[in-house]
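Sequence only, no structure available. Ideas?
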Amino acid sequence: MAGSYVNQVRLVGRVSDVGEARQLPSGDTVHPWRLVVPREDKATRSGRKQPDVIDVVCWSAVTRRAAGRLQIGQDVEVEGALRRRFFRTAAGVGSRYEVEARSLTRLRIESLP
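Reply:
I predicted one. Tokens follow.
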């Protein structure tokens, strides 16, 4: 049964923050950025639709280069895997979910599904 497990994410949305690549103490380079995906489900009590804001990280040279060319407001498709990252804070251990991008494609409005 272990062969049937899947951690695969596909998101289509709009870039809300382009971030910038940074080198970690380990020597690895990462480029974090944010994606906004409007929800298709019903609106909140106030009548406004609630979007999902998703943190995306690019580790490979190919995805980091693509992330470096992103612009705020641009439509993109991201494929990758969901990861949970743990870190220390003054209050103790914290965690955050993010999508680790395997591929990143800039889209034109007419190519959205």
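Residues 61-68 form the longest helix (8 residues).
Hope that gets you unstuck.
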